[in-house]
Amino acid sequence: MAIGSPLQRGRDAYARRAWTEAFQQLSAARALRPLAPADCWRLAVAAELVGRADVFIEVLDGAHRLAEEAGDLAAAAHCAVWIALRWARSGESARASGWLARARRLLEHHGAPCAGAGYLRLAEAQRALAGGDASAAAVASAEAVSLAERFGDDDLHAFGLYVHGLAHVRQARVTDGMALLDEAMLGIASDERMPIVTGIVYCGVIAACRDVHAYGRAREWTAALTTWCERQPDMVPFAGTCMVHRAEILLLHGAWNEAQTEATLARERCARAGDRREAADALYTLGELHRLRGQLPEAEDAYRQAAHAGRDPQPGLALVRLAQGDRRTARAALGRALQEERSPLRRARLLPAVIEASLASEDAEAARVACEELEHIAEAYEAGALRTVSAQWRGAVELASGDPTAALVALRSAWRGFQAWDAPYPSARTRELIGRACLALGDRDSAALELQAAREGYAALGATADLARLEAHGVADGDLGLTRRERQVLRLVAAGASNKAVAAELGVSERTVERHLSNVFDKLGVSSRTEAAAFAFRHGIA
Fold first, then answer.
1. Distance between CA atoms of 45 and 193, rounded to whole angstroms?
2. Taking Cα atoms as reference points, which of 139, 223, 217, 130 lies closest to residue 181?
3. Please, which residues have CB within 8 angstroms of residue 347's CB and are 6 or more apart in sequence?
4. Angle ∠(128,131,135) on CA atoms, nearest 5
5. Buried b (16+ CB within 10 A) or exposed e, 163-187
6. pLDDT digits 0-9 by tens, 318-345
7. Could you tell me the end-to-end alpha-carbon distance of the chain, in angstroms, rounded to an integer?
8. pLDDT, tens digit, for every residue of 206-235?
C-alpha cells in the first residue's frame, strides 16, 4: 500500500481526528476496493461525525453482512447493535427494534459469551430506560459492565457505567448514580475511546446532572465537553448538543446575551446534524430567554417551533400565557402536561410553573399541593439544588397564605442556595419575595432594601417583565406599595411644596392631593409631612 494512498491518508486523518478529511479519503479508498473491518469502522465513525448518519448505517450494514457471510457472528451482531443504537437516536424505534432482534438472533447462534452480547444488553438497557423501567435497565447495564470487564472492552465499560448510573438516578438512588456517572466520565478521558461513545457519554451525563439540578457538575463536565469539541472543529454531532448545554448554563448564570448567541448557533448546528431533539432544546432555551426579557411574541414563536420539532413547549408556553393574563389557558396546559408526565424529575420541571399559575389565580390550595410534591421529589432524589427551588416556592406559598414569618425562613434559605449557584435571576425573584414578606411584617426599611436589590438584579439582566411587575405594584424604587401618582405627590411634598403647589404642578384639585397624601401616610406608617419627607429621602424616592 502506497504511503500516499487514500486508505493511508484516511487512517492518518482519523488518528488526527480530522473527520472531514478522514471521511473523504476513506470513502475514496472504499470506491477502489472493499475495506477491511477495522477500516469500515473508521469510515462509519467519520461519517457519523461529519453528519452523514446515512453512510454510517450503510457502511455498518455492509460490514454486518460480510461478517455474517464469513461466519463471524459476534462481529455481525456488534454491527447490528450499533445500527440499532443509531436508529434509536434518530427516533426510529421500529427499525431499532428490528436490528436488535437480528443481533439477538446472531448471538444466540454464536453461543459463546462475547463483548457483542454486552453491547446488546446495553441497547436493551437504554430501551428499558426509554420505557420507564429503570429496574430492568439497571440489571441489563450491570451485565454489560461485567462483560466489558471480562473481555477488556473499554468503550463498552464507559458506556455501560453511564447507562448503569442513569438507571440508578431514575430509581432515586442519586448519590450512587452520580458516582457511576463520574466514573464513566473518567473512562472516556482518553482519546483512545471511540468518539461516538465519548460524545454520547458526555452529553448524557450532562443531561442527567441537569435533571437532578446538579449545576456544579453540569458546568464542570460542559467545560470538558467544550474542550473536547474544540479539538475537532469539523465534528457535527455532539458539538451542537454541547452548545445547548452551554447556553443553558449561561442563562442560569445571567449571561443572557451570550446564551442567546450560543442557543442560536446550537439550533443551526443541531439542524445540520439532523438532531431534531437537540434543535428543539435549543429553541426552547431561546424561548426562555425571550420570555424572561418580556419579549412574549418572540418567546411564543420559539416555543411553538420547539413543539414542531418534537418537544413539549411546557412550562414555557404556559408561563407566556400567564404573563399575558390568560390564567385559565396557562393552568389547563400545565394540568395536561402533569397528567401525561410520570417521571418525578420531569414533573419537578413543571411544578414551579403550576405553583406560580395557582398563586396568580388565588388558588392557594392547588399551589400548596404542588409545592408539597416538589418538596417530596427533592427529598426522594437527594437533590440539594432542587431543595433550593422548592424552598423558594414554599416561601411564595406561605406568603400568599398570610404567614410571612414562615415565608422568610424558606426564602432566606432559597436565596443562600441561589447565591451559591451564582444564579442572579432566581436570586432577584427571591429577594423580591423577601421584600414583600418584610413589608407584610411591617419592617419597611428591610423591605425597601430587598426590593431595591431585586430591582437592580432585574435591571442588570434586562428582565423587563419583572421590572414592569415591580412598577405595577408600586415597589420599583423601594417605595413600598405607593402608586405612581402617590410617588409624585411624595416627591413634591419632600421638596417643600404645599398642597396647593402640588395640585397646580399635577393639574389636580387640592382635595385630590389631600387624599393621595393621606394614602401615603397610611402606607408608610407616618403621621406628618416631615416624617414622609424623611422617608422619601432615606429610601431614594425624593
1. 12
2. 217
3. 338, 341, 373, 377
4. 45
5. bbbbbbbbebbbeebbebbbebbeb
6. 999 999 999 999 999 999 999 999 889 8
7. 86
8. 989 888 888 888 888 888 888 998 899 888
